[in-house]
């Protein structure tokens, strides 16, 4: 009976159950639309001061104007490491929550300002740099939005061709970037634990949520299919934001992965979900971290417990 009650409570969890976040500050990347905007609104309603970290400031201001609570808008282009550094350099004071939400999906082949494949560069490297630069300010947790797409095909990190020049497909590039999000979370939590930090790193995915992200797919057939899916299969952006909000506010272990509890994790209430063996590979996670430091020039800055003890 108790198990049934707990299951029901989890399935019915919603944004009205968020704890009081008064006095806390949250940064949400890509908060101008979709689940980012919905999550930002819910956090602000719960009392948090929410910073909209967006590429288009005017769109960000228009979105923030629809939110009930304390907000501000700052420019951040994750496809430009100079913009990431500028955002981080301007940060002052404690940051309770960093939500790495922004992303691009199944784009035609293109590069970031720094020359990286756009999906890997934006979804992973941009957030990797942002997190590490802001980490000295973070007091509670980092939540990174991944996707069930990390399971697509033989999704793996192509260390010999991270830009996928030899065999680019929009789907393959997206899958690699979402796998990278999970490996990043895994290694970040290992480093936080090793540093004796109370900060937790978690990941979440929205299931199949109807947002404008799918409208950028390069293949017109894929766009048409996703429009139908958005209409008949997907949950709305409010339901899609619940895994992010759950990961951001509930007492969960570091490196947890939250998604919908329904069939195929496509819709439903937020719960802990599984991931592929590739997304759980600690050796690959460490290798990806090292490569990401080399590519971005941004390194992990917290001091390990071992180094502190031996000093």
Number of strands: 8
Strand fraction band?
5-15%
Uncertain stretches: 1-9, 221-226, 228-232, 306-311
Question: DSSP helix count?
Answer: 10
How far apart are the first and last residues' alpha carbons, in Å? Answer: 53 Å
Largest sheet: 8 strands, mixed
Secondary-structure element order, as H and E?
HEHEHEHEHEHEHHEEHH
Mean pLDDT: 89
Proportion of helical residues:
40-55%
Shape: globular
Coarse structural class: alpha/beta
Strand order of the largest sheet: 3-2-1-4-5-6-7-8
Radius of gyration: 18 Å
Structure notes:
The protein has 311 residues and is an alpha/beta fold. The chain contains 10 helices and 8 strands. It has helices at 2-11, 34-45, 57-64, 81-89, 118-134, 170-194, 220-232, 237-249, 282-296, 305-310; strands at residues 25-29, 49-54, 71-75, 95-100, 138-145, 200-204, 257-260, 270-272. Strands 3-2-1-4-5-6-7-8 form an 8-stranded mixed sheet, sandwiched between helices. Helix 2 (34-45) packs across helix 8, helix 5 runs parallel beside helix 6 (170-194) and helix 5 crosses helix 9 (282-296). The longest helix has 25 residues, at 170-194. The radius of gyration is 18 Å and the shape is globular.
């Amino acid at each position: 009976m108790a198990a049934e009650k707990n299951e029901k409570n989890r399935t019915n969890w919603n944004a009205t159950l968020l704890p009081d976040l008064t006095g806390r500050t949250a940064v949400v990347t890509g908060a101008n639309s979709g689940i980012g905007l919905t999550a930002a609104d819910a956090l602000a309603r719960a009392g948090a001061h929410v910073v909209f970290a967006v590429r288009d400031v005017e769109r960000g201001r228009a979105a923030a104007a629809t939110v009930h609570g304390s907000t501000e808008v700052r420019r951040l282009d994750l496809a430009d490491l100079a913009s990431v550094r500028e955002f981080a350099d301007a940060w002052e004071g404690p940051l309770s929550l960093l939500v790495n939400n922004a992303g691009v999906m199944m784009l035609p082949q293109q590069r970031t300002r720094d020359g990286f494949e756009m999906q890997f560069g934006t979804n992973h490297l941009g957030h990797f740099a942002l997190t590490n630069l802001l980490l000295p300010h973070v007091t509670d947790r980092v939540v990174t939005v991944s996707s069930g797409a990390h399971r697509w095909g033989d999704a793996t990190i192509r260390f010999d061709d991270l830009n996928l020049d030899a065999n680019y497909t929009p789907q393959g590039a997206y899958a690699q970037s979402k796998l990278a999000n999970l490996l990043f979370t895994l290694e970040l939590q290992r480093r936080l634990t090793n540093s004796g930090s109370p900060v937790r790193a978690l990941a979440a995915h929205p299931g199949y949520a109807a947002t404008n992200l799918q409208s950028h797919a390069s293949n017109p057939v894929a766009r048409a299919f996703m429009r139908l899916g958005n209409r008949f299969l997907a949950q709305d952006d409010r339901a899609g934001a619940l895994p992010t909000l759950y990961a951001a506010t509930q007492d969960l272990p570091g490196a947890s992965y939250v998604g919908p509890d329904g069939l195929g994790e496509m819709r439903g209430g937020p719960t802990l979900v599984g991931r592929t063996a590739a997304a759980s590979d600690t050796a690959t996670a460490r290798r990806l971290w090292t490569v990401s430091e080399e590519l971005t020039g941004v390194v992990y800055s917290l001091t390990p417990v071992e180094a502190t003890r031996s000093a």
